[in-house]
Amino acid sequence: FKAFHAGIVVIADEINASPMLESYLNQLLMGYDENHMRTQKPGFLLIGTQNPASMGGRLEASTALSRRLITLTLPEYS
Q1: So what's the pLDDT on residue 8?
Q2: b/e map 20-29, b = 16+ CB within 10 Å
Q3: According to the model, what pLDDT value does residue 57 have?
Q4: 5-8 long-range Cβ contacts below 8 angstroms, 24+ apart
Q5: Mean pLDDT in runs of 10 for the chain (78 residues)?
Q6: For residues 29 and 44, what is the distance between their CA atoms, to the nearest angstrom?
Q7: Which pTM value belongs to this model?
Q8: Which of 45, 69, 53 lies closest to 16, judged by CA?
């Protein structure tokens, strides 16, 4: 939440590995912190990576989170 209020770019790996993380991401991407306060400094940006939900321990993103993200699918590399 510190990065949210400071307007910092955050890179998060494996954002689909934890259901609790999705709840936080939804909240932040709606523009609110854990106390339902809006940030005073714009600029917060989340860059997240994830592996397919077909991999063990991964979850499919909820409809709510999917609508708040721009998704880029990269081809597998050899």
Answers
A1: 94
A2: ebbebbbebb
A3: 87
A4: 5/33, 5/39, 5/40, 5/41, 6/41, 6/44, 7/39, 7/41, 7/42, 7/43, 7/44, 8/43, 8/44
A5: 92 89 88 91 92 88 89 87
A6: 9
A7: 0.76
A8: 53
